[in-house]
Please model this.
Amino acid sequence: MASCQACVLTCMDFRIQTAVANWLRDKGLLGQYDYLSLPGASRNFLEEGKINLVEDSYRLHQIKEVYLIHHEDCGAYNLGDLPVAEQLARQRPDMEAAARILKERHPELKVHLAFLYLDGRVVELA
Ligand SMILES: [Zn+2]
Model:
């Protein structure tokens, strides 16, 4: 069965797609990841069934890593009026909750958290 290195869960927002793809390419992951692009990335990870999509990737492609990528001015969070540091602070608990759930179910998975600024910078949080 085919396998790949990672599963990426990021927001569907068109403004971030090029920067996300470039960042993943720079990590050497080009062609090595399943890609999930949904509103708010890991927001409501359990409630919206996003966990099931990541687990499909795990089951089908034996992924080793998961990248959860959130971003500035995310419409799913509607925090655009706040300073970007505050936007990140409000999104981060959702990212950490999703990471915790994944690690509980699959302790061997590496889970990376990243935040993308609309100027294209990506900061890895964990
Ligand atoms: Zn978004």
Remarks:
- The CA atoms of residues 41 and 118 lie 16 Å apart.
- The first helix runs from residue 17 to 26.
- The longest strand covers residues 65-71.
